[in-house]
Amino acid sequence: MAQYDRKILNSLLDSYEKSLLFTGRNKVNIRISFPFTVTSVPEYFDESSLAYEELHIKLNELERKGYIRIIWKKENHIIKKVILKEDRITEIYHFLKRLPKVDSIGNTLKLLDDMKPQCDTPVCTRFIAWLSLRIQADEPVKEYIDLEQQKQTARLLKAITCIEKNREGCYIREFSIRHFGDSKILESLLGLIGKIMRRFGGQFAEMDVYAILAEYFIYHTPNYIYVKGDSGLLKLADSCIALGGLKQGIGISGEDLPHMTLSNMERIKKVITIENLTTFFSWQEPDSILIYLGGYHNSVRRILLSLFYARLPHARYLHFGDIDAGGFEIYEDLCSKTKIPFQPYYMNLETLKAYKDFAKKLTLNDRKRIGKMQEQKGDCVYREVLDYMLAENVKLEQECIITGNTHPYHFVSPSL
Asked: Which residue among 17, 161, 241, 362 is least packed, with the fewest CB closer than 10 Å?
């Protein structure tokens, strides 16, 4: 049988630590109790289980120790509830080998204070400050850390700091071995790290954890950038790659970018970033370089874009993505972080109207995000698109837009 005596005592302590009794702010006489119901102790009410007698034995023993008081129903010797004896709290913590919450709070606050000097990166600094304020105000922080597990908290803070300081390209498991001596430690923290980065690093609000790590040159898989075009040469050491001869383009490793140069780009009039891989492979555009962005761009893609911008400063720089909140957020992020004057491409009102039959309905979250963009962006170049999306309750995936003879609407490329 499960150790229900310990489970019940721990539940009583949990309730005590959440109560005004713990903080000393109680103004009325309250008692901490654990009710016996089919939900709280199902085995107790199961006639085929031995829990009934065993629980009576265990709880009677706890009552003799003075830890609890049992309240019985009048009939059938059924336990109604057990009440915590607050005057024996210290002994109960010792019996359970559980650290009192006040000690856990003190130890965690000391840990946070001690780690501030070494965890001085932007996200980690904000995270530590938030934790400290919440803990001191007796507000919950359980979504991020366990107050009883200082070692885990220290490991989490170290992981975030090391990620923010990383400037050397590596894979997740390599990074984990380098900093923790174990290839799987970082992977076990990824869910929390992503949540923290999104909340305390504003620029990551809509990014998944792998995209966030890529901003710091830490990759889940080899970091290839897909590029194609109908002309131009990519030179790598003694190799020379002619883009015009590769219909579906080529994947370039981020590690090779520092050694790559561009030439024979005179024909190139447009550099187009494309949000989705399917569209990248199917899209053809004369006198253009096409770069697969993969949603939010990362530091390696920015390096490649800076190479093209330095070589082709007078070309038109265009971003082609979904006509939805996420697509325009990615566009804004691209402009902000690259400082390149990108313009949205096929993300205008004409396109949305032409492909309205393929559109999807907005979710409640879509509407909130679009409304926020309307407030923040004012008279942005795609304002009429945002207005139309809300008015008609539509959004459009990039893959719905087709070129060439298969194009269902004989659509003309928008003028810029």
From this structure: 241
